[in-house]
Amino acid sequence: MDAPASESKLIDSFKMHVATIESADLEQLHALSVDSFKMHVATIESADLEQLHALSVSVGWPLRSEDLQFLRECGRGYVARDDIGRLTGSAMWFPHGDDFATIGMVITSPRLQSNGTARWLMEHVLRDCLGRNLRLNATRASRRLYHSLDFKPMRTIYQCQGIVRPADSTTTTEQPPVRRLEGEDLVAVAELDAGAFGVSRAALIGKIFAQSVGYGLFRGDRLQAFALCRPFGRGHVVGPVVADSNADAIAVIRPHVAAKENQFLRLDTPIETGLFATFLSQSGLAVFDTVLAMSRPGKGRADVVPGPNLYGLASHALG
Ligand SMILES: CC(C)(COP(=O)(O)OP(=O)(O)OC[C@H]1O[C@@H](n2cnc3c(N)ncnc32)[C@H](O)[C@@H]1OP(=O)(O)O)[C@@H](O)C(=O)NCCC(=O)NCCS
Asked: Residue 248 belongs to what domain range?
């Protein structure tokens, strides 16, 4: 059924119809005219997984349906649908505790971009996240949007990926004590991750841990560094990676790299230069792209920033 003209009017064939949350009445929040399309907002859970997959493929993202389903299990969010039910946009948020969330999966179908859809969906997300400290990883295309929503740049994240090259067998330096992680190591992994990430995300780490092979560096009984590796996108992703030094970070990712020889591997890292970056490029993981990590403080609070010991992200959306 057509909504009354007063609910969402077409201003110009390529101009969006945007209103601030405060000025909009509730009905207007649920429909948006984009070009000749009328968009309706719905929860991300209600979206058909294959349609969601098609949407992410349409913007060139390599995520598998399984990756999208995993994101849905970890977060909340919205999709935009046109009058005949096609998915035209998405935006998600991933809560950790009551005060913090990351934002991701912000996508608008290419044929409808630059008409206000992402801003409209982000307004829904930001309303849900009111008062929370927020972080996200912005692609080039999305920076202007996030700037205008008061997100501030923090640092560059390097998306390193490629087919893993055979290891250099001439490495003779003594290797730190690394072993495969077991279920009983999860608590220590979540604690180390919280220190590096800036806030506890134990539930998410538990879910990632269950899908991953992990290696940890122990000194005495203490876990000092770890790296998880799970199926993702075109192959596997290594992350999160937490370590106090380049040497420790290399020590915990080395077994993953060795296990994935001649296979596709990805690692998203804030580290641009030095031994760790060199190890990645020598292993075949070249910088493929960059994103800009951005943050927005919650009400009356300072930004929650990640520490220098966060060597690898869980993913762009999850931080
Ligand atoms: C980024 C993206 C979600 C923006 O969606 P959209 O629906 O086109 O965005 P909107 O129309 O709501 O525009 C929001 C702002 O961004 C600007 N913008 C939109 N596309 C842009 C582009 N390609 N380059 C520069 N600015 C752009 C708009 O002009 C608008 O700014 P304004 O309000 O100051 O005029 C969309 O381009 C996309 O899906 N890109 C591929 C996936 C991606 O990179 N997602 C971001 C993940 S962090």
From this structure: 158-312
